[in-house]
Design brief:
12 helices; mainly alpha; 2 strands; two-stranded antiparallel ribbon; globular; 66% helix
């Protein structure tokens, strides 16, 4: 997302991302807690309003932050240039193939770790409508997290440390959502949710390393959210058990091995603690 040879405004990005998201979510919390429009919020119209307001505002905050900073730095002139960066893929066929492979792999992970909510053999298709809705409901975080913050941190830190930092920041950034009753995150266990964010950070950082395409990661993030409507992720409701920790460990270790291999092939020092 950012021109490689220019300084990365990491702190400005984080400040804008947290400010936009937490103000939007603060408004929703205030509306719920004060009961100003409680009748409206309790209906289907209110649910749609909360999802859209949070998605376009808080959920897209990393994208808005990137847009503002790119405009300020003169790297883009408007939304057209911004979306061209999102959709940019150096090797389109390779990007499609690798993204599809990640889709299939995570479908298997969701099937193993979750509980299927339906009874039809073609249940994978049930996720497709949610996939497109998820672009706003989570996918648009990726221009900031994986498209900017991850590679910016990797310029100074090794892949493991950079990804852990992104995962922790990503988790903290979600905290106000736990107080919004309308979206159901208040029922999640914070330890399991943190482990999930860190694990997904490794997976999506790996996908971005493979493709260098932000839209690829946006789609994958949306796919993860969509599968949550097909397979109930019960492990997120309680502290992480042995099964979940083993699955997470396998996914994280696999991501690290792949990324170390990719970095070595590109002549990068991937495991140095701090890069001067």
């Amino acid at each position: 997302m950012w021109n490689e040879n220019t300084k990365k405004p990491i702190w400005s990005f984080l400040a804008l991302t947290f400010l936009i998201a937490w103000v939007c979510e603060g408004v929703l919390i205030l509306l719920e807690q004060t009961g100003i429009i409680s009748d409206f919020l309790s209906g289907i119209g209110g649910f749609i309003f909360v999802i859209m307001f949070r998605g376009i505002g808080a959920g897209s905050a990393p994208a808005w932050a990137m847009f503002i900073l790119l405009i300020k730095q003169g790297q883009i002139r408007g939304f057209k240039d911004f979306f061209l960066r999102i959709f940019k893929a150096e090797k389109k066929l390779k990007t499609v193939m690798i993204t599809t492979l990640f889709f299939i792999a995570y479908f298997i992970v969701a099937m193993i770790s979750g509980v299927y909510l339906g009874d039809t053999w073609y249940f994978a298709l049930l996720a497709l409508p949610w996939l497109f809705a998820g672009i706003i409901g989570g996918g648009m975080e990726e221009p900031g997290w994986r498209g900017f913050l991850q590679p910016a941190l990797e310029e100074k830190l090794n892949f493991i440390v950079a990804t852990l930092i992104v995962g922790v920041i990503w988790t903290i950034w979600h905290f106000p959502a736990f107080f919004i009753q309308s979206i159901g995150m208040s029922y999640l266990n914070i330890m399991s949710y943190t482990l999930s964010c860190i694990t997904l950070s490794f997976i999506m950082a790996t996908l971005y390393k493979f493709t260098k395409c932000v839209f690829s990661v946006i789609l994958f993030h949306s796919w993860v959210n969509a599968l949550g409507n097909v397979f109930l992720q019960e492990h997120l409701l309680s502290p992480p058990g042995i099964k979940v920790m083993i699955i997470s460990a396998i996914l994280i270790i696999t991501s690290i091995v792949i990324c170390v291999f990719l970095d070595k092939n590109n002549g990068k020092q991937c495991m140095v603690w701090y890069k001067h």
